[in-house]
Amino acid sequence: MDLREIIKQNFFDLHLHTTASDGSFTPSEIVEKAAKKGLEVIAITDHDTLDGVAEARLKAIECNITVISGIELTTKYKGRNIDILGYNVHATQQLEEVMKRIQTHRMTRANKIIEKFCQIGIVISKADVEKHSIGGVIARPHIAKAVVEKGYANSQQEVFDRYLGDGKPCAMDKIFLSPMQAINLIHQAGGQAVLAHPALIRDDNIVRELMQLPLDGIEVWHRKHKKKDIKRYKKIAKQYGKIITGGSDFHYDGHHMGDFGYHA
Q: How many distinct helices (H) and strands (E) make up the chain?
């Protein structure tokens, strides 16, 4: 589905996570939630996987909503994490190989993070974490939930602030692509590549540098973007001839699911 047409319709959310990666709800549940909100088009954009898309599309038939096949790839540029969203992608050999490599590393990384927690006296096991991983993929939010459940912290956010965030004692890097590698993978998979939540990069000079790459668009609307951010990134999008998109980056009910569009 053409991204330029989607944003004219309003009532969309093009950045949603499910239990296929680090979301709290199954793909079917996400579709139901979106339909109840009156959304017309959504994108499932799980981290490093397309596994949630088929289930979401099946449920979408029942709910009369359009589901776009999406993915979110984390890249590294000038020492910063840069997330690239891919829309209308299909599985290719190259993308499958990269996703498999990243997911294998994710499991190794999760085990090492659990070990780090134990070393500082926060005793959790892999079994404790797996209880929170419905889709079988262990991500940092699942580890944070286990830490909270064991009574070592009051909230997932506290776990990230004290232990799991960048530079914190239990943090570990994931496998990173370069922005150009991610863009190429998405284009080879027939998709459009969009820079995610640019305000979170916290450096518009870097955003402008990234806009000179063959990105197709930029995520203008996001639950953490203020009105001044939306205005600024619309201007940057126009300057560089990029499509504008938007989404909530929804993981759990504490996040506000769309709708986005020109009315936002």
A: 10, 7
Q: Which residue has the tokens 């974490």?
A: 129
Amino acid at 221: W
Q: How is 14-26 classified by DSSP, letter by letter?
A: EEE--TTTT-SS-
- Distance CA(243)–CA(3), nearest Å, equals 7
261 confidence band (pLDDT: 50, 70, 90):
low
Question: pLDDT value at position 16?
Answer: 97
Helix axes 93-119, 140-149, angle to 10 degrees: 30
**CA 179/CA 215 separation, integer angstroms:** 9
* CA 110 centroid distance within chain: 18
3-state secondary structure of 139: coil
C-beta separation of 219 from 168 below 8 A = no
Per-residue pLDDT of 47-65, as tens digits, reads 999 999 999 999 999 999 9
Question: Global pTM?
Answer: 0.88
Q: 197 — alpha (psi -120 to 50), left (phi > 0) or beta?
A: left
pLDDT in tens, 206-247: 999 999 999 999 999 999 999 999 999 999 999 999 999 999
| Interstrand relation of 41-44 and 217-222 (parallel, antiparallel or unpaired) | unpaired
Give the residue carrying structure tokens 């053409």: 2
